[in-house]
């Protein structure tokens, strides 16, 4: 595999020997349940066949020397410097290094040893594309550190550690979905997670169906604040709805009927945001039965409804994502198309009949290019395993 050779060569050049280990952790695509993980809802992601790879060897010092091959940059940090977000020479950590350093910080907080290592990493999950490149970096490094530390963690615990790093160190208030999918992915399976109980199961990918990812090439930054604003609106909705529904702790606890009755009491914007969440949780509750019954037609319709809701109620879409979803939905063989991940740019997820997936991809690329003037990247993905040690 090219990316592993690439980081192995850089490792050899920089550190003068071959890396002892290589770990990988995938990105994810989400099919249903968007912006509901932090509302205790249900999500239906799959780990994809694009991942972050880290080549690493233990050292005797407590310093970690890290090369980010994709940025052609290096950073050196240790357990003493990470609380300050600095390198060992006192300079600030570059932004990309916050993810691995955040993992070291989270491990130390939980009294798990993150010993010093030399490491080179690279990723083919496009950054800022809604495919969870940051979670894949976090899980790749958790895997590296458990390998060197001689301790292990259940995969859900690894996911929670990755989320802690992102919430408390990087400063993005994300839910558990991305780290969960990157940690717990299973080949050829969709993952159904209850974000309240953290119970999860796998569901087979419907036969003869391909997941096609369509990258608009619009890039966003999750830290830009819009994401955190959406979370705050959901919290405000819960706070206000508690006056009539004192037992609720999250929007998960509000039925569509209750919401319809009480929505008028909420400020207009808060009401739109909360309606998306309440209705999206309702949609995602139907996913398992529909997939089991092989009702891909209805499942695809729910995906399309989800896109409309993210566009009009949650307002996290953008013109390019809307064009990509609209063209896809008009093409032969497409059951459903919608933006995936946080939004504000990035990718759509498309469910397409296998035998039409190639032609679908070509027509979608052409149509998008004509309307937007940008060449998108469109590929058929495979549901893959979660974080793992390769060597
Ligand atoms: C980002 C976050 C996830 C989730 C999605 C939206 O990917 O990291 O926790 O909230 O957005 O569903």
* Annotation field: number of helices: 11
Strands in their spatial order, largest beta sheet: 5-4-6-3-1-13
Q: What is the C-alpha radius of gyration, as a whole number of Å?
A: 21 Å
The total count of strands amounts to 13
Helical residues, percent: 40-55%
Give the ordered list of helices and strands: HEEEEEHEHHHEEEHHHHHEEHEE
SS content category:
alpha+beta
Beta fraction of the residues?
15-25%
Unreliable parts = none
* Biggest pleated sheet: 6 strands, mixed
Ligand species? alpha-D-galactopyranose
Q: Could you say which overall geometry the principal axes of the C-alpha atoms support?
A: globular
Distance between the termini: 13 Å
Q: How would you briefly describe this protein structure?
A:
The protein is α+β, with helices and mostly antiparallel strands and 391 residues long. 41% of the residues lie in helices and 21% in strands.
Plain-language structure description:
It is a single chain. The model has no long low-confidence stretch (mean pLDDT 97). The radius of gyration is 21 Å and the shape is globular. With 391 residues, the chain is α+β, with helices and mostly antiparallel strands. The relative contact order is 0.17. The longest helix has 25 residues, at 268-292. Helix content is 41%, strand content 21%. The site of alpha-D-galactopyranose (GLA) has 11 residues, from helix 5.
């Amino acid at each position: 595999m090219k990316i592993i050779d690439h980081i192995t060569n850089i490792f050899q050049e920089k550190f003068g020997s071959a890396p002892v280990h290589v770990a990988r952790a995938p990105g994810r695509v989400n099919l249903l349940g968007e912006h509901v993980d932090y509302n205790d809802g249900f999500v239906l992601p799959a780990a994809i066949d694009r991942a972050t790879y880290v080549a690493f060897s233990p050292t005797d010092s407590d310093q970690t020397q890290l090369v980010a091959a994709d940025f052609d940059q290096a950073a050196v940090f240790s357990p003493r410097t990470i609380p300050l977000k600095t390198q060992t020479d006192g300079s600030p950590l570059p932004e990309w290094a916050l993810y691995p350093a955040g993992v070291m910080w989270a491990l130390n907080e939980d009294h798990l040893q993150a010993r010093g290592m030399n490491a080179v990493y690279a990723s083919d999950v496009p950054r800022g594309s809604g495919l969870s490149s940051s979670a894949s970096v976090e899980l790749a490094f958790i895997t590296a550190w458990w390998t060197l530390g001689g301790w292990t963690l259940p995969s859900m615990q690894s996911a929670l550690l990755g989320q802690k790093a992102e919430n408390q160190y990087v400063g993005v208030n994300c839910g558990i979905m991305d780290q969960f999918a990157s940690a717990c992915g299973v080949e050829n399976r969709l993952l159904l997670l209850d974000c309240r109980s953290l119970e999860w199961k796998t569901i087979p990918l419907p036969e003869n169906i391909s997941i096609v990812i369509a990258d608009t090439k619009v890039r966003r930054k999750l830290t830009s604040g819009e994401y955190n604003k959406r979370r705050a609106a959901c919290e405000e909705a819960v706070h206000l709805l508690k006056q009539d529904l004192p037992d609720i702790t999250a929007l998960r606890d509000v039925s569509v009927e209750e919401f319809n009755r009480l929505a008028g009491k909420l400020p207009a914007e808060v009401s739109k945001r909360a309606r998306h969440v309440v209705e999206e949780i309702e949609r995602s509750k139907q996913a398992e039965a529909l997939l089991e019954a092989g009702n891909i037609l209805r499942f695809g319709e729910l995906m399309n409804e989800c896109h409309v809701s993210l566009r009009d109620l949650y307002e996290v879409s953008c013109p390019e994502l809307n064009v990509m979803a609209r063209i896809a939905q008009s093409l032969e063989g497409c059951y459903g198309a919608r933006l995936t991940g946080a939004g504000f740019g990035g990718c759509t997820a498309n469910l397409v009949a296998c035998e039409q997936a190639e032609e679908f991809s070509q027509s979608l690329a052409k149509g998008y290019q004509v309307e937007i003037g940008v060449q998108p990247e469109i590929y058929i993905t495979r549901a893959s395993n979660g974080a793992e040690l390769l060597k």
